[in-house]
Amino acid sequence: MKTNMKGRHFVSMMDFTGEELETILETGFDFKRMLARGQRHEVLEGKSLGMLFTKPSTRTRISFETGMTQLGGHAQYYTEETTQIAHKETWEDTARIMSRYLDALMIRVYDLEKYGMARDIVATLAANATIPIINGLDDKEHPCQTMADLMTIIEKLGADWRRKKIVMSWAYAERVKSPGVAQSMLAAASLLGMDLTIAHPEGYELDEAYMSFARKAYKQSGGKLSVVKDIYKACNGADVIYAKSWGSLKMSKKDDNAYRAQFREDWRIKPKHFEIANKVANYMHPLPADRGQEVANEVIDGPMSVVYDQGENRLHAQKAVLALVMR
Ligand code: CP
Q1: What is 145-310's CATH topology?
Q2: What are the Cα distances from residue 144, in Å, to 77, 88, 136, 226, 242?
Q3: CATH architecture assignment, domain 13-141+313-326
Q4: Where exactly are the structural domains of the chain?
Q5: pTM
Q6: Taking CB atoms and a 6 Å cutoff, what residues make up the pocket around ligand 1?
Q7: Closest residue (by CA) to atom 3 of ligand 1?
Q8: Distance from the CA of 106 to the center of ligand 1, in angstroms?
Q9: Percent of the chain residues past pLDDT 90, beyond the cut
């Protein structure tokens, strides 16, 4: 089993094997247990993580910063406006100079003019940096979120988690968001051999590059992938209903906003969706949730909700990624 990830970029789930993802998960659980027992685990003593945010964040910023402190290192926060990127310093030069000071760089960038432009920036940083680049959400993926989500699924569903029905669904929201969470989950589920149902209305298909990667990976991993356009069919017998909004890759933002209004009622997760799911099914969302749009308060505040456990697991999963790539 290959466990050495020193120096690797953590940009796309598609760059990793199922065994490597399992190594990250096991390391995350190790750190979680050590923290609970009060055991020090300062494996990154003296190391520095840069965090470049072009978009707002609560969970990602705080969990990375706290994680670096717990690992014995330090995290630095910057935005485009507070760096020379504001004066058009190139991403190439930014990557090269930051590599002279830092031991790794995390970046959040999405919602640019066209789908894929943000990933191009992350890829440019990765190509020019001599330190690991970590994707803190771009327009294609949110791999750190998915590692935390997988930890949560394993904790909640137990040893047989690969055979449980996980629904990754589109949900209604006025705000058009990145499909990153769904695409990272699809790639990871295919590598780990999970039972995944992708649900979305017509027009919200995921990037074909992720679909074709997943179809191939599923042939190797032995899991099960379904794609449905009916939210009720998806929720029937589900063990997890993970529902969040994402933008259409086919429509302009303006057209998408007008088109999606028809899905407002059916694709807002309510107690009705859980009535047809398995009795102890869990509700998942990466947060922040658009309450009343993506989900009813009775669900996100109800006993089925595990959203704060997911949020906490960001800390443990990211510490695992940091420790493995920065050591
Ligand atoms: N889920 C997530 O990435 O949260 P933030 O946007 O608050 O970082």
Answers
A1: Rossmann fold (3.40.50)
A2: 17, 28, 7, 24, 16
A3: 3-Layer(aba) Sandwich (3.40)
A4: 13-141+313-326, 145-310
A5: 0.98
A6: 57-60, 137, 145, 286-288
A7: 60
A8: 13
A9: 98
